[in-house]
Amino acid sequence: MTDTTPTPSAATGPAPAKAGRIAFLGLGHMGLPMAANLVAAGYDVAGYDVVPAAVDAARAAGIPTAESALDAAAGARIVLTMFPSGAHLLRAYLGGPAEPGLLAQADPGTLFLDCSTITVEESREAADAALAAGHRSADAPVSGGVVGAEAGTLTFMVGADEADLPQLMPLLEVMGRKIVHCGGHGAGQAAKICNNMILGASMIVSSEAFVLGEKLGLSHQALFDVISTASGQCWAVTTNCPVPGPVPTSPANRDYRPGFAGALMAKDLGLALAALQSTGVAAEIGPAAAAIYQRYAAGEGATRDFSGIITDIRHASAGGPAAAGDGTAGDGPAGDDAVAADDSVGG
Ligand code: NAD
């Protein structure tokens, strides 16, 4: 794994004017601000989304748009996708009975860059199909959420041939702050799901610890002061603390508005679970975390931050002995409308 975090001397690839057209497909929560940053940096972007309202929003944000995905991809040097799932990606690449696919229509040698979060298998299948059609391929899923997409501070986990990095890096540097080349095709997706499996599991156990602390009469601040400087230290506590007060920018201070929604954590843990099963890893915590977030996302966790899992744990613990309240009294400003800092958004 190569850490290619941008430095002032790292931008050795083509300047925006020489980079050629970028077809940017998928202008949703993440794609729109990412495409807007490319436009602002001087890149020639042709955006498209299957949802007309998303195309309208992109145009309003100053992103040039095309009439269709194929129009956007015509003559493009790079086709960048930011889709909900691998099924969307493969359908767009391969087409269907009534619609030609992007791979068949693009100019030979086009670089297909997928930034969606999908399974490792789907990612490798997409790369194999792109290569078989005479193109090049890279996967570069992101972490950092919508706030990171807007600020251009995403982390990109890249699976690509070394030879394609000079073309990729300047582009990713516009949209991200940290870029790690993890290996060949699919390696970016692999790194992303491994990381998010740790994130999901550590948020659950951190939340369990805070509820246990409440039951034992500990204040949130006292427990935070210990965990954040002791061996239990983790991002789930120090940056996305599941109780209000100790970390003012964490979603707990704004009634668990995301941040990183429980539904997205459930999706990523589902991808991790599929990988655990297909590789035969004897994991117990990852699958348990996946089941817990599936349950959370089926209810209010669909739209709440993934750290809101603590409210489920607290409710399920309500019948136990010696409850010390709901844990919010005297522990900081619940409902504070703080906006998350760039590095406080998971996913
Ligand atoms: P989203 O649903 O808001 O956007 C996806 C867009 O893709 C939609 O607007 C959809 O209409 C469009 N689309 C689907 N098929 C298309 C096609 N064939 N052509 C053109 N457009 C098409 O999702 P999002 O929140 O932007 O997330 C995108 C990806 O990024 C997902 O894979 C997600 O897991 C990942 N991700 C999201 C976050 C986050 O915080 N939202 C964080 C990290 C990673």
Automatic annotation (TrEMBL):
<feature type="region of interest" description="Disordered">
    <location>
        <begin position="318"/>
        <end position="347"/>
    </location>
</feature>
<keyword id="KW-0560">Oxidoreductase</keyword>
<dbReference type="Pfam" id="PF14833">
    <property type="entry name" value="NAD_binding_11"/>
</dbReference>
<keyword id="KW-0101">Branched-chain amino acid catabolism</keyword>
<dbReference type="InterPro" id="IPR015815">
    <property type="entry name" value="HIBADH-related"/>
</dbReference>
<dbReference type="Pfam" id="PF03446">
    <property type="entry name" value="NAD_binding_2"/>
</dbReference>
<dbReference type="InterPro" id="IPR029154">
    <property type="entry name" value="HIBADH-like_NADP-bd"/>
</dbReference>
<dbReference type="InterPro" id="IPR008927">
    <property type="entry name" value="6-PGluconate_DH-like_C_sf"/>
</dbReference>
<dbReference type="InterPro" id="IPR013328">
    <property type="entry name" value="6PGD_dom2"/>
</dbReference>
<dbReference type="InterPro" id="IPR002204">
    <property type="entry name" value="3-OH-isobutyrate_DH-rel_CS"/>
</dbReference>
<comment type="similarity">
    <text>Belongs to the HIBADH-related family.</text>
</comment>
<keyword id="KW-0520">NAD</keyword>
<dbReference type="InterPro" id="IPR036291">
    <property type="entry name" value="NAD(P)-bd_dom_sf"/>
</dbReference>
<feature type="compositionally biased region" description="Low complexity">
    <location>
        <begin position="335"/>
        <end position="347"/>
    </location>
</feature>
<dbReference type="InterPro" id="IPR011548">
    <property type="entry name" value="HIBADH"/>
</dbReference>
<feature type="domain" description="6-phosphogluconate dehydrogenase NADP-binding">
    <location>
        <begin position="21"/>
        <end position="183"/>
    </location>
</feature>
<dbReference type="InterPro" id="IPR006115">
    <property type="entry name" value="6PGDH_NADP-bd"/>
</dbReference>
<feature type="domain" description="3-hydroxyisobutyrate dehydrogenase-like NAD-binding">
    <location>
        <begin position="186"/>
        <end position="310"/>
    </location>
</feature>
<protein>
    <recommendedName>
        <fullName>3-hydroxyisobutyrate dehydrogenase</fullName>
        <ecNumber>1.1.1.31</ecNumber>
    </recommendedName>
</protein>
<comment type="pathway">
    <text>Amino-acid degradation; L-valine degradation.</text>
</comment>
